Amino acid sequence: MSAHSRLSLNQGTIKHASLAEALHVSVRQGLQSIGLWREPIAEVGLERAAQLLRDSGLRFSSNCRAGFLTSPDNRQAALDSNRVAIEETRVLAEAGAPGSSATLVMVAGGVPEGGTIEDARARFEEGIAELAPEAEAAGVTLALEPLHPMYASDRAVLSTLGQSLDIADRVGSSAVGVVVDAFHVWWDPDVEAQIARAGRDGRIASYQVCDWQTPLPADVLLARHLPGDGVIDFARLTALVNAAGYAGDVEVEVFNADLWAKSYDDAVAEMVQKFDAAVGEHLTEFALA
Amino acid sequence: MSAHSRLSLNQGTIKHASLAEALHVSVRQGLQSIGLWREPIAEVGLERAAQLLRDSGLRFSSNCRAGFLTSPDNRQAALDSNRVAIEETRVLAEAGAPGSSATLVMVAGGVPEGGTIEDARARFEEGIAELAPEAEAAGVTLALEPLHPMYASDRAVLSTLGQSLDIADRVGSSAVGVVVDAFHVWWDPDVEAQIARAGRDGRIASYQVCDWQTPLPADVLLARHLPGDGVIDFARLTALVNAAGYAGDVEVEVFNADLWAKSYDDAVAEMVQKFDAAVGEHLTEFALA
Fold first, then answer.
1. What are the coiled-coil residue ranges (chains A, B) (predicted)?
2. Using only C-alpha atoms, what is the Rg of chain B?
């Protein structure tokens, strides 16, 4: 088996796998890169996780995820959890194969009970401003991920690339980047201009792909599909990301109950095939930075 | 009973009512204005609908809805259906009490099977450009309604106020306006600037209010709630709409299975009360143009 050289499995796609299982199936299916989630890392501890990653020979494309900085309660604990995640990201990027990326995906958090979206957004930005110097010192990128507006109330008050780049500008740190996730941005009338802007500013930390299909499932968190199974125009989005100069790993991050019910090998093999058909042909080959 | 002088019942809030029932319950509950849907109008015919409206003494705040101009198939039929809706709107605005508004709500339509969102958006804009001179001649405003991006694939490729105002600028007709619907725009990081822009350009044709709450129901079309029952900051949005100079009717348009299960009187009485508490206090009194 081989897979596209820039394809990375985001572990969320095989959510029930342990870290070791996710690494093994990735190698077996010919992948060169993986994006990890914090919970499976925590299960074995950071040192062991780094060893397993090193042994796999895979690149590390991102650490999912930190952030959740919109609540006025337990502020210090939220910031400290992000500090732990920054350190994890530094260690794992060093343990991964050459071309690994010290990218920490940041999900904003929702509107707190009784609060307003304006206040929540301001609080998130304050948190990023506080963490950015520490991320910079660690060589880690805080990759702000705008989520689809249907998650704005309960998960992420960060809703567009433009908003994320505005925050990056105001914070003014080179450690602040953005995630371009097709599922979250495909509908945005401003997506072309904002991907170009993100490229000009050197802020594209990750390109993630999964597809949008309706009707939405009862749990909209599980609304994602493998590339090619929905309505997103990956040829266009990928061309925009290419033109913006992004040449790193491309993660497939699909939360889907049917996919999770398959064997890890079957799920990853299907991902490899559908990625090639829908996205891979539009990408340039992976080039070491 | 009396209700806020600017409150208008959008008939979708009591979906199962006939036109006559909707008019009667509105009068009974002390409302001064109503927004109608095309299907109940069609049930009795336009002439009879106009007579019933005239007899009610209510203002007419909008005709819901036309548009659906994104498919390359049956193009002429889609345009002709919009022409019928323009004429309906003209007639009903004349039949309504002084202060009625000849506003036709335009929902874009989704991404056609096998098509792209870019093409669908271009096709919608072409349709608006074709219809605008006819609307202008009839004294009717084509009120472009951006819908929440979770409907972008299957219902409306028009997703933001900014995008709608860009179309209005390019079409260049005074007959093109926009709907500011709280449910659809509350998450938009650019909402403040775009409401102000819409006001400056004289394009706010309608302000609609309903609330956002999670978790979303299995059918996301029924995700709407009465104002105050969710997370939307109506004080802020209403202040923005006031500041933009909008002084017309404010429609409550809620699609909600629980509300539809109530008696029309109970549903409208609850709407009147919740509107007052969440929105009414932030509005100025209705002033005839």
1. none
2. 17
Contact B150 A149 (CB under 8 A): yes
Say if CB B52 and CB B19 are below 8 A apart.
Answer: yes
Which residue range(s) make up the domain with B39?
7-282
Count of the separate structural domains present in chain B: 1
Is B2 inside any structural domain? no
Is there a contact between A117 and B231 if contact means CB atoms under 8 Å apart?
yes
Is B287 part of a structural domain of the chain? no
Q: Is the pLDDT of residue A42 over 50?
A: yes
Burial A131-147 (b: 16+ CB within 10 A, else e): bbebbbebebbbbbbbb
ipTM of the complex: 0.93
What pLDDT, in 10s, does the model give residues B10-57?
Answer: 999 999 999 999 999 999 999 999 999 999 999 999 999 999 999 999
pLDDT above 90: residue A286: no
pLDDT digits (tens, 9 = 90+) for B64-102: 999 999 999 999 999 999 999 999 999 999 999 999 999
Selection from B146, B153, B246 nearest residue B191 by Cα: B146
Q: Does B231 touch chain A (CB under 8 A)?
A: yes
Which of B117, B162, B187 minimises the CB distance to A159? B187
With contact defined as beta carbons under 8 Å apart, do A138 and A200 qualify?
no
CA distances from B165 to A52, B85, B177, B247 (A): 53, 22, 8, 19
Q: Provide the 3-class DSSP secondary structure of residue A283.
A: coil
Give the whole-angstrom CA distance, residue A263 versus residue A265: 5
